Amino acid sequence: MNNALELDNVSAFYGASQILQLLNLRVEQGKVTCLLGLNGMGKTTTLKAIMGLVDRVEGRITLNGQPLVGRTHLRARMGVTLVPEDRKVFASLTVHENMTVAQQLTGSGKDFLIEDAVRLFPRLQERLEQKAGTLSGGEQQMLVVARALLANPSYILLDEPTEGLAPDYVDAIKESIQAARSRNIGIILVEQSLPLALAVGDDFYIIENGQTIFNEPRDAVMADPAILEKMLAVE
Ligand SMILES: Nc1ncnc2c1ncn2[C@@H]1O[C@H](COP(=O)(O)OP(=O)(O)OP(=O)(O)O)[C@@H](O)[C@H]1O
C-alpha cells in the first residue's frame, strides 16, 4: 500500500482568487514534512485544501491511495487531523473532557491514550479538571496538540504550532512531534522557525506563490550549505 498523503497538481481557490497553483506535495506516514515559505505564500491554504476548507480545489488529493474528498469531518474520519493556528479549545469543558471528545473523533484505533497525553504534557496532568478556557496560551496549545494525538489519526497537520510560545512549551511540542512520528503518524509542519524545522524534519518544501519551488530531504539539506541558504531566506 502507498502510505502517503499526496497532493498532485492541486489548485485551490477562495472565491475567484486562485491561491494554490498546481502544487505537488508528498508526505509519508512516520515522517515529518516541513512547509516553509514567506508570509502569504499559501502554506495555511495547503493545509486547508487537504481538509476541504477552501472554496474549490482542482487536482488530486489522496490518502494512502484513496481520494481524500468530501466534507471536513469525513476527511478527519479518514485519518487526517488539522491543528490550526488559532488554538481553539472547548473553553467551557475541562481539559479531561476536551481530551475525551477528541478520542471520539476518528474512531480509528485507540493507540494514544489520555495517560500518554499527560506523560507527554505533565502540565496538563495537574490541570485535568480545570476549564480549558482558563489555561494559559501555551497550555492551550499543548491541549490542542494532545487532542490531535488522541484522535489517533494517520496524519497530523500542524500550522505554526510554536508561534509565540516560551522555550519550555516549544520543547514539549518538539517532543510531541517526535512521539507522533514514532507512532507512524505522518506530519505536515508549517513552521517559521528554521531551528525547530531542522530539529524534527525529514523532508523540506518551500512554497512560493502557491507552488512548491523546492523539495529536499534532510540529508541533502545537511550536506549542502547552498540549500540551507535558500531555507534561511524564507525564514
Ligand atoms: N479566506 C480567504 N479568502 C481570500 N483570500 C485568502 C483567504 N485566506 C487566505 N487568503 C489569501 O491567500 C494567500 C495565502 O494565504 P495563506 O494563509 O495560505 O499563506 P501562508 O503562507 O500560510 O502565510 P502566513 O505565514 O502569513 O500564514 C494570501 O494572499 C491570503 O491573503
Please provide a written account of the structure.
There is one protein chain. With 235 residues, the chain is of the alpha/beta class. The protein has one domain (4-232): Rossmann fold, CATH 3.40.50. Helices cover 38% and strands 28% of the residues. It contains 10 helices and 10 strands. It has helices at residues 43-51, 72-78, 95-106, 114-120, 122-125, 137-150, 167-182, 194-200, 218-223, 225-232, and strands at residues 4-14, 17-28, 32-36, 56-63, 66-67, 80-83, 155-159, 186-190, 203-208, 211-217. The strands form 2 sheets. It has a 6-stranded mixed beta sheet, sandwiched between helices. Strand 1 and strand 2 form a beta hairpin. Helix 3 (95-106) runs parallel beside helix 6 and helix 4 (114-120) packs antiparallel against helix 6. The longest helix is centred in the last third of the chain and has 16 residues, at 167-182. The radius of gyration is 17 Å and the shape is globular. The N and C termini lie far apart (35 Å). Adenosine-5'-triphosphate (ATP) binds next to strand 2 and helix 1.
